[in-house]
Amino acid sequence: MQDQFSTPSDSFGALGATFWIVTCVVTVFYIATMWKIYAKAGQPGWAAIIPIYNVIVLHQIVGKPVWWVLLYFIPIVGIVIGIIVTHALSLSFGKGTGFTVGLILLGFIFYPILAWSDAQYLGPAAGTPVPV
Length: 132
What we know:
By secondary structure, this protein is mainly alpha-helical. The protein contains 5 helices and no strands.
């Protein structure tokens, strides 16, 4: 009888441990990816791991005003700003609208491509005018 009750507990423990290991691996991979993107853009890689500051640096990378960070706190507007900044990131690395769609819908594939491919940082939004 004891084995019958200890088995589900053990399997849930193993499942929980597996979940946390996978979560940690994915998190470290994402941090390394963003670190590399920031470094390619001439910014300190460690800036990618500091909350809020990482978004400020991202806005500097893509050439958008830093005050736009406040717009992320407004419902719906934050989503639109996120899409605009993601598109500006694509343009900053010489990629187009299709790559932006990939970053939004399949970010776990496209962000590493941006980080470890031969994509070069061309400047904030690759020369497009910066609205104020």
